[in-house]
């Protein structure tokens, strides 16, 4: 799942972004209101975390502009403005939750999970044959057996399962999971796919992760219009 963090204070932005990424989320950071509005126009986010005291626009103005665009993703205000009036105004303008700084990251993470459940922007559970992935609780199982995945492994598998039957290139996977340009000089995707196969394919006779020659990888049978996949492995 992809989160937009709108925060101009670098120390806080780095702390929150690292924590969310460590929990398996993809995070974009905007340092101003205008930058946030541009990013919302360019990409689809599952959740927005919004500071109110930005260098160019008041956060409430940003929120109003987002809602005027008929954007429906949940918005969590994260602000040092702690008065009751500020909290009420934020919720009235269109925020779904309001958390006051300073805050405990564990509480922020709990609120993020709750908003993602409530927003239902994406299916809560993904299923491919006997492989199940719980997007909210971040749990994976196959044939009823729980499988422990590292955050990046989980993010890659979630991306593949959301695109069941569609071949995803290595560059698409890198840009989605690591949010960086793919240079063709790294085998990082192949390394993580090997790790995933060791956990979700090797213990079972039926292999789900397929190599698509000349493209990349996919989970599940290919779509009719998609590229032909080689046998798994």
Describe the structure in your own words:
- The protein has 233 residues and is of the alpha/beta class.
- The chain is built from eight helices and twelve strands.
- It has helices at residues 10-22, 33-42, 59-68, 84-93, 105-119, 151-162, 170-177, 188-200, and strands at 2-6, 26-30, 47-50, 75-79, 97-100, 125-128, 131-134, 139-142, 145-147, 168-169, 209-212, 216-219.
- The strands form three sheets. A five-stranded parallel beta sheet has the order 2-1-3-4-5, with helices on both faces. It has a four-stranded antiparallel beta sheet with strand order 6-7-8-9, covered by helices on one side. Strands 10-12-11 form a three-stranded antiparallel beta sheet.
- The relative contact order is 0.11.
- It folds into two domains: 2-119, Rossmann fold; 125-219, Orthogonal Bundle (Arc Repressor Mutant, subunit A).
- The chain is elongated.
Summarize this entry quickly.
This protein is an alpha/beta fold and 233 residues long. It has 8 helices and 12 strands. The protein has helices at 10-22, 33-42, 59-68, 84-93, 105-119, 151-162, 170-177, 188-200; strands at residues 2-6, 26-30, 47-50, 75-79, 97-100, 125-128, 131-134, 139-142, 145-147, 168-169, 209-212, 216-219.
CATH top-level class of the largest domain: Alpha Beta
Described by strand count, sense and barrel closure, the largest sheet is: 5 strands, parallel
Enumerate the strands of the largest sheet in spatial order, edge to edge or round the barrel.
Answer: 2-1-3-4-5
The third-level CATH topology of the largest domain is: Rossmann fold
| Number of helical stretches of at least 4 residues | 8
Gyration radius from CA atoms, angstroms? 19 Å
Low-confidence stretches: none
Instruction: Report, as a whole number of angstroms, the end-to-end distance.
Output: 27 Å
Structural class assignment: alpha/beta
Shape: elongated
